[in-house]
Amino acid sequence: MQMYCSTSPTSPSKKRRSRFRGQSGFTLVEVGVAGTVLVMGLCSALFSLQHGFQALDTARSSTLAAQIMQSEIERLRLLAWDDITNPTIIPASGPINLSQVYSTNPTIASHFTATRTVTPSLGREGTMLDIQVTVSWKSYNGVDHSRSFKTRYSKDGLYDYYYTKPGHS
Fold first, then answer.
1. In which order are the strands placed within the sheet that holds 128-138?
2. Of 44, 135, 151, 168, which has the highest C-beta tally within 10 A?
């Protein structure tokens, strides 16, 4: 049995260097550029997410404002002409007490302010009223918003005629 032993002319540190010489890696500049692109992508995603939440808040609050206005208009529709023209029952203008209307949800009452204006219609004083309900609120980022609804209230109802079928009187 023969054994051969050879000594390498290179040192162990040169062996390690020569082993990595054929492999490639990322340079410090490439890593920096990749990190910058990643940070820019994350920042734009957060920016888009923030704008999405703002749009969601505005849409949700606009829907609640529309429901508040509709609720007030429906409440007024149920009143008789003598009640709606009586300033002690329905003042000509002023705030609407939302804490009475939304007693089970005080958050809505504190987040919104509502006002109502009742004025006689021009040219139809005594038979028709113009009613405007305005709801205002601040979004979570401090921007003021307002929505209004205007309608008319007639003394004799919506129509001043009666519909009859032909041949029936």
1. 93-96, 112-120, 128-138, 144-154
2. 135
